[in-house]
Design goal:
single chain; 3 helices; globular
Length: 472
């Protein structure tokens, strides 16, 4: 292949691990044999799946809580089997979903300032899989829509707002599903499976739009790019690691195919749609390779490799709105070692301190473009974009609320509906914002009054018992 110096503003991107005091230390990262990333990050929290006796647990740490993490630090520990995958909701930075070996998916509400006590009661339990659930993925643009995939070879799409499974794709895969990826507007999904096929699926029509057989039998990954093409990482017949770019309209031949090396770890792809850069992190590797995807041949351009000494057990990837735009940071990874989590910062070297608008086009914000019901009815919408010019300031997240009180008290079953208070769409009307705040205040007041009444009831019954004793 001829090496020609190609013009690109990302040619000199470099990675740098943070200093030791900015790492998260003394964390017992999960040893479960599963090829998920074990880590999920958003602009508020980092969540890490950890070793736990008698069930499954994960840590949720506020980003600023660096240093040594005490062994008694509270965890999210409601699962009865090891947790296999976690995913933060893109529309609410305090809501996280987890899939586990206990065949359930749980959705959790994390307090605004992080956990002070261990969390055992999820907002909702989603039951429908007959084997362990290894993949959870939120819809990119519709509120409260969550996808889960299990070792029963089924994909279920849930309306978290009602606790219902609304779409069940249980006859499309004949073997284990390695990964699932939504496209940019959430109208299609692509999957990679142990049956050696990559599929593009329309979940609402419940039909396969395109499929392609992959040569190697080893675990692979497939993700959608912003232009609708599919990027895959996998293995050749000779067990060499490969990456390929496909057009779903014609899956016979790849647009580009690169042989990498003969290492045996699965390559986890992390994609930034704003800069068209793909970062490949091999499980068990000690490096992150990154490539730029363009319209000109050879389409997938190698940029550079970040190398370190320690192999990675997993990797978290910060959404664009959580980056420091003043330092020209274009990606931040959270690398899991055996006993710690180490942030790695990717930077474009620039001399100017001004906002670099060519590095930071408008990016997907936290506002949902659709409600769950609209998406299930067939509507599509692109993400609502925000500018990062003045940095991202997290807004107040509205609680994922359950109306029926008894569901919070007892664990919900699959057929019970957990009616969440419907969340109104973004409005510039300040009156409605004030009304929401008042409503929250009233609900809090009602709760405290109820608590007081319960306490008084107990006190009255005790006093009555004492009276009865005296009278006797």
């Amino acid at each position: 292949m001829r090496r020609v110096v190609r013009q690109s503003k990302f040619r000199h991107v470099f990675g740098q691990a943070v200093k030791n005091d900015q790492c998260y230390d003394d964390i017992r990262v999960s040893r479960v044999t599963w090829d998920s990333s074990f880590c999920a990050v958003n602009p508020r929290f980092v969540a890490i799946i950890i070793e736990a006796s008698g069930g499954g647990a994960f840590l949720v740490l506020p980003l600023h809580k660096t240093g040594r993490i005490d062994k008694s630090y509270p965890t999210v520990c409601g699962h009865t089997g090891p947790v296999l995958d976690i995913d933060w909701c893109p529309h609410n930075d305090q809501v996280i979903a987890s899939g586990s070996e206990d065949c359930t998916v749980m959705v959790w509400q994390i307090p605004e300032n992080g956990l002070t006590l261990s969390l055992t009661e999820p907002v909702v339990i989603l039951e429908g899989h007959s084997k362990r659930v290894g993949i959870v993925a939120w819809h990119p643009t519709a509120r409260n829509v969550l996808l889960s995939a299990g070792c029963d070879n089924a994909i279920i799409i849930w309306n978290v707002g009602t606790g219902e499974a609304l779409i069940n794709l249980d006859d499309m895969h004949s073997d284990m599903i390695y990964n699932v990826s939504w496209n940019r507007n959430g109208s299609l999904i692509c999957t990679a499976s142990k049956d050696k096929k990559v599929r593009v699926i329309d979940p609402r029509k419940q039909e396969i739009v395109a499929e392609k057989a992959h040569e190697g039998a080893r675990p692979m990954r497939a993700i959608f790019l912003a232009d609708g093409n599919v990027f895959t990482t996998g293995f050749s017949r000779m067990s060499e690691r490969q990456l390929a770019l496909w057009n779903p309209k014609n899956m016979q031949e790849p647009i580009a195919l690169h042989e990498m090396d003969t290492s045996n770890g699965v390559l986890l792809p992390f994609y930034d749609p704003d800069t068209s850069i793909i970062y490949l992190c091999g499980k068990g590797d000690s490096s992150i390779r990154y490539f730029e995807i363009t319209d000109e041949s050879p389409y997938v351009h190698y940029l550079n490799t970040f190398s370190s000494k320690e192999p990675q057990r997993g990797m978290g990837y910060m959404p664009k709105r959580g980056l420091d735009v003043n330092k020209c940071e274009i990606a931040r990874f959270f690398k899991l070692h055996e006993r710690k989590c180490e942030p790695i910062i990717m930077t474009v070297p620039r001399k100017s301190d001004l906002f670099q608008d060519d590095l930071y086009p408008d990016t997907a914000g936290p506002e949902a473009a659709l409600e769950a019901e609209e998406w299930f009815e067939g509507k599509n919408a692109d993400p609502i974009l925000i500018s990062l010019k003045h940095g991202y300031i997290p807004g107040k997240n509205r609680d994922l609320k359950v109306v029926k009180k008894n569901i919070l008290d007892s664990k919900p079953t699959a057929n019970k509906k957990c009616d969440l208070i419907s969340i109104p769409k973004k409005t510039t009307d300040t009156a409605s914002v004030q009304n929401e705040a008042k409503l929250d205040e009233i609900l809090k007041e009602i709760k405290s009054i109820k608590d007081t009444i319960c306490n008084q009831d107990e006190r009255i019954s005790k006093l009555e018992q004492q009276m009865a004793k005296i009278a006797a």
